[in-house]
Amino acid sequence: MTETPTVQFLSVEGEFAPTESAEEYRSYLDRLSETDLQDFYRKMVVVRRFDGEATNLQRQGQMALWVPSHGQEGAQVGSAFAARPQDHLFPSYREHAVGLVRGIDMLAIVELLRGNTHGGWDPTDPTNGNFHGYCLVIGSHSLHATGYAMGLQRDGVVGTGDPEVDAAVLCYFGDGATSQGDVSEAFVFSASSQTPNVFFLQNNQWAISVPVSVQSRVPLYLRSRGFGVPSVQIDGNDVLASYAVTAKALDDARGGGGPQFIEALTYRIGAHTTSDDPTKYRENAEQEFWVKRDPIVRFEKYLRSLGEGDAFFDGVKTEADDFAADIRARTLVLEAPPIGTMFDHVYSEPHPVMTEQKLWLERYEASFQEEQA
Ligand SMILES: Cc1ncc(C[n+]2csc(CCOP(=O)(O)OP(=O)(O)O)c2C)c(N)n1
């Protein structure tokens, strides 16, 4: 197995300094206008602010759990911008920035983690940008994504040569997910059928408390090659690398070139979830190393070198604060759903055991009112 160097356009200091391996992707950056670059920055800042507000809301008892995305904005925003409207995106549960780029109402993620809804948003609603539901069962959605891509193939919307018609599937998962059999099976099926899949791994270095060095003896991007799925490793904290490499992979997949695998090297700056305490298993020095590679700070330096000034950055900050305030206000007025709805989606058809359990719960709840009377 030959290792190839990591694709990177922006140095840690935010200077445009493409690595040799980035040259192949350089022309993809020509597609970007100044407004696009501003939007990359805007989305990264807004989602980080949203993420912070959601964490605060969890701490104030508005949600049982929050899953932070702080640090992974570069990988997510770049790759999501690379997708075309007709592409389908399958997230795991940390892809808040991808959801934002695809246009979902971010309150839906809060509602999901607050237990107000079972899915959060409807992926078949055209306003949700083909952004599929969050999936907490690690790696399982890689098979859903592969099945969906097989469906696109059979619908004849792959390799027609018409860029408005051809579609691909972009599937996100973490380093821990690559240890699941489901991901290996997804590689087998996508390689066998040459499906239009792009698998996007955010290697944030930890699967809760298990470091990537324990999870794999080889760099993770080499995994898929044994299945016949070509792969690239990128600097996941470089939004430009994430955009360009994903754009090419999606173009190839839509054109009938078969599946592709991208490993984005990034870092989960905070805790795995608000229930986790990384100080129990992580060294501060490691975190500091990654904080210096912050995707937002780096991209801001780059934009400033292009001539972007304070007015733009101040405007984005205000926008992000307003966004967070809106999410907070709308969260605080959410009402709990009727308790029985938890039984409604276990089976697609009515099921006698569910009906019985629902009735039991209703009687149980009513018994408190009887006691009070
Ligand atoms: C099938 C399955 N096994 C175990 C878990 C418990 N679990 C939740 S998150 C997680 C770690 C996942 O790590 P990774 O795939 O790297 O994603 P990250 O959370 O770091 O983004 C585990 C083991 C689960 N949700 N599903």
UniProtKB/TrEMBL annotation:
GO terms for biological process: branched-chain amino acid catabolic process. Keywords: Oxidoreductase, Pyruvate, Thiamine pyrophosphate. Transmembrane segments: none annotated. Its EC number is 1.2.4.4. One of its GO terms (molecular function) is branched-chain 2-oxo acid dehydrogenase activity. Its cofactor is thiamine diphosphate. Residues 42-307 form the Dehydrogenase E1 component domain. Pfam families: E1_dh (PF00676). InterPro entries: Alpha-ketoacid_DH_E1_comp (IPR050771), DH_E1 (IPR001017), THDP-binding (IPR029061). It comes from the Bacteria. It catalyses: N(6)-[(R)-lipoyl]-L-lysyl-[protein] + 3-methyl-2-oxobutanoate + H(+) = N(6)-[(R)-S(8)-2-methylpropanoyldihydrolipoyl]-L-lysyl-[protein] + CO2. It is an enzyme of class 1 (oxidoreductase). The branched-chain alpha-keto dehydrogenase complex catalyzes the overall conversion of alpha-keto acids to acyl-CoA and CO(2). It contains multiple copies of three enzymatic components: branched-chain alpha-keto acid decarboxylase (E1), lipoamide acyltransferase (E2) and lipoamide dehydrogenase (E3). Belongs to the BCKDHA family. This is 2-oxoisovalerate dehydrogenase subunit alpha. It comes from Herbiconiux flava. The lineage of its organism: Bacteria, Bacillati, Actinomycetota, Actinomycetes, Micrococcales.
